[in-house]
Amino acid sequence: MKGVFKAVLLFIFLSLLSSAAYAQTKLLRFPDIHGDKVVFTYAGDLWIASSNGGTATRLTAHPGVEVFAKFSPDGKYIAFTGQYDGDEQVYVIPVTGGEPKQLTYYPARGPLTPRWGYDQQVYGWTRDGKSVLFRSSRDSWTLGVSNLYTVPATGGAAEKLPIPETGAGDYSPDGNKVVYSPRFRDFRPEKRYGGGQANDLFIFDLKTYNVQKIAGDPRADRDPMWIGHTIFYNSDRDGHFNLYAYDTTTAKTTQITTNKKWDVRWPSSDNEGHIVYELSGELQILDTKSRKSTPISITVPDDGLWKRPSRINAAQYMEDYSLSPKGERALFCARGDIFTSPIEKGSTRNLTHSSSAHDKFPRWSPDGSKIVFISDKTGEEQVYIIAQDGSTPAEQMTTEHKVMLYEPEWSSDGSRIAYSDKDGKLYILTVADKKVTEIADSSRGQIRDYNWSPRGNFLAFSMAGSNNQSVIYIWSGNDNKLHKVTDSMFNSTNPAWEPQGNYVYYL
Fold first, then answer.
1. Fewer CB near the last or first residue (10 Å), C or N of the chain?
2. E strands, 324-434, in order
3. What is the pTM of this model?
């Protein structure tokens, strides 16, 4: 029995070791599918793997980013957007790997800030496989305004599609029409946006130039993929991005996926019967006939350079700074941690060491013994206090907030702390008992210019009224009452106390 028991334990141990060594790799992005292969971006490089999962093979290794890989219709080549030579251009590479061939040469607008995405963004191929379809801002003076182009896979001049303004697009099966979104908002951070800039989808006839709107909804409809008589697309109309299908013969729309936790991201099709998409950093494949999604487990055997210990110059990432009350040490936050550094002698101290949290807005107490700051280490931003020498762990002072918080400011006697939130509320925290009192709620904008009186018994700040003009208010700690002190007909901001505390100056 002992031998059997040991054998079972050894099998379990080896199984766990094997699963740990070949665990599903996260953060697989911008996938595409063709037959039994999927291609995707991981850590800025292109990788290819079986559509059944398994170990991926690297296709590119350039320091720049390679994104939006798309298989050619015959599956022999992959087009992509690459940041070679300091620019973003369209490239094509054999599916087996090799030296990328550059197809476009017009200078890109980029690299751009994240909300603008990438220029020369590849969306696919023409149905005959002779040209690559991509989006570019080359003919626009304005960021966010772009057009679709094709460029021959063998090289040559790019040709603009006759559509006034375009974001994503895909050809109909016969190649005579294009389904597209007029706006390019693919990298915008807003969720559930339903304003006038939300993406809609249209069908453009390349012969007659007729335009037909489909799938109209106040929220975004994007990432169109045309398979047979059905246009699949991505929309967050139910609160999360999910896949929908629009039947071009009946004009009927059907919801395909119903994810309630994670958004469907970057779906791409083989234009035949399968769609691959990102969900929670992993890949799933949708069979468009059965309408069923199957997760695939892929391991990327990279060398893990991104997770090796390294030294970072925090001075390049400073967010806030101040001097201690006696001017002996400097206080600042950088890369999510709180530091103090000596002006002359001593060592720099990392007070929080919280790699998994964003610590910000540190402020010295009037006597210099403590530091108050905001942190999201619990998942929501709360107020914390820590000893200035880091000798004791930080103490959590609030628990009730579920919104972004702003600068905590000590009263001069150190008994109270004022801070605000993004919803326009202003709070007073009593340090001794951790009691939080809401003293103001702005219906228009936020309150960010609060200022304690020299004796710490009054707090001055400005708050916008119904006419959008800011008014100076003073809160009294003696009776917990709010006093309006300037005329609402004029815009008054930035109150500051004179040293004796008898007058308030303001703009």
1. N
2. 329-334, 337-342, 349-350, 359-364, 370-375, 382-387, 395-396, 409-410, 416-420, 425-430
3. 0.72
